[in-house]
Amino acid sequence: MRQVFPPKKVMFFAPHPDDIEMGCPFMFFEALRLGYKVIEVVMTNGEFGTFRNEFKGRRLAKIRRRELSHANEILQEDTKKRIKVIRMGYVDGYLPLNIASLNRVRNLIQAEGPNIIFAPDPLYPQDYHHDHLNTGKLVYYALFKPKPSETPRVFYYYSTKAESYFKCHWTDLKLLSAALNAHQSQFSPLAVKLVVPLYKKLSLIRHLLEKGHLAESYREQKFENQKPLSMKKFNFWERIIYYIFSSVTKRALVPLHSLTPEEVGLDRLKTYLDY
After folding, report:
1. How many structural domains are present in the chain?
2. Residue 82: is it exposed, middle or buried by C-beta count within 10 angstroms (0-12/13-18/19+)?
3. Cα 24 vs. chain centroid, distance in angstroms?
4. Cβ atoms of 127 and 24 closer than 8 Å
5. CA triplet 204, 72, 106: central angle to 5 degrees?
6. Which of 18, 120, 217, 237 is the most buried (most CB within 10 A)?
7. For residue 14, what is the domain's CATH number?
8. How many other C-beta atoms can be found within 10 angstroms of the C-beta atom of residue 243?
């Protein structure tokens, strides 16, 4: 009798509701298309992802929840596969890095038992948003105590030190752009039509020139004695990259967080799962 193995289970950690479509859309889509069990873990509700103060708070969180559902429906309809969404409920911009949040992530990984994990790069990042860094760090530190036989492979997106490349299909770009455009509250009409698609195309073309084929890039977490290896010291060029990306990120976040959670009726220490 032929032995039937269960499909791989892939867990994608997203700091905000639109980060899968921005950071690793082709890999996410391919996992669905291959029939893998796909879990999307959304760490925050996205309450501050707009320049319009009147929308910030619970109102925007509800909008972003609907937008994520719409984006996933586009991919589910094409692949006929279901995406399991787990919302951690933290306030946008205030994802904690503490024992409680670490235990939640560690327990989630152990309960679901993914074979592969994708998360933002916490050590060599492209985006220095507080939530992006802490999402990656929580995954990184959660890996220090899994059972040896259950250690998953881990790939980081939004990385400045990528060395793993996933071959992409240009024909998928139209569908993935539609999924990204579902997050309308995050982008102006100009950005939806021109800026975001142009950014993704330029990224793909850059990898085409580097690797000879269209690709998404990732950094794979290395392990030694079942423990994740830490980062090495930055060299001169990496220090320049750090300065550029961190400066751009910090300037971009200032207008988004012009109000505090308390000013929009939220407790920054609570989680909100009822939007």
Report:
1. 1
2. exposed
3. 7
4. no
5. 90
6. 120
7. 3.40.50.10320
8. 10
Contact (CB, 8 A) for 53 and 98: no
Domain-located, residue 207 = yes
Res 114: pLDDT: 96
Q: CA 105, CA 111: separation in Å to the nearest integer? A: 10
Q: Are 105 and 275 in contact (CB under 8 A)?
A: no
Q: How do residues 149-162 score in pLDDT, each as one tens digit?
A: 678 999 999 999 98
Q: What is the pLDDT of residue 232?
A: 79
Contacts of 52 (CB under 8 A, 6+ apart): none
Helix (H, G, I), strand (E, B) or coil at 65: helix
Which CB contacts under 8 angstroms, 24+ apart, belong to 197-204?
197/173, 200/25, 200/173, 200/176, 201/173, 204/168, 204/170, 204/173
Strands (E), the chain: 9-14, 37-44, 83-90, 116-120, 153-157, 164-167, 215-220, 223-224, 227-228
Gap between the Cα atoms of 190 and 53, Å rounded: 20
What is the per-residue pLDDT for 1? 41
Q: In this structure, are residues 15 and 129 in contact, taking their beta carbons and an 8 Å threshold?
A: yes
Task: Identify whether 275 is part of a domain.
Answer: no
Domain range for 227 is 9-264
> What DSSP line would sit under 223-265, residue for residue?
EETTEEPPPPPP-HHHHHHHHHHHHHHHHHHTTTTSS-TGGGT
- Residue 258 near residue 53 (C-beta atoms within 8 A): yes
- Stretches where the chain sits below pLDDT 50 are 1-4
Query: In 3D, which of 79, 124, 78, 84 has the Cα closest to residue 217?
Result: 124
Q: Measuring CA to CA, how many Å separate 116 from each of 12, 109, 123, 226? A: 9, 10, 19, 15
